[in-house]
Design a protein that fits this description.
Blueprint (H helix, E strand, L loop, with lengths): L5 H22 L4 H21 L24 H4 L6
């Protein structure tokens, strides 16, 4: 399994923090069970976000090969348009 990228860690962590704060503020719960449910659901949401961040594609570097140099072939006189035949 590949290592998580910096973007995955950042998006997952930010999602956990902000979703936890939002759910705690919106639910106004003070019970231990409610806080535990919110914390677990925020962690699950952060994991989901971190896993759905697209992985960077490996770069393919094309190596430039030197151009092949072939011996110059003589061009027929007909192709050049000259009136003298060689």
């Amino acid at each position: 399994m590949p290592r998580p990228t910096a973007a995955q860690l950042a998006y997952g962590s930010i999602t956990v923090i902000f979703s936890t704060l939002a759910m705690l503020l919106l639910s106004q719960t003070s019970s231990t069970v409610g806080i535990a449910i919110i914390a677990v659901s925020a962690l699950a949401l952060g994991l989901l976000v971190a896993l759905t961040v697209p992985q960077p594609k490996p770069r393919v570097v094309a190596l430039r090969k030197p151009a092949r140099r072939t011996a110059e072939e003589p061009v027929p006189a007909v192709a050049t348009g000259s009136k003298t035949a060689a």
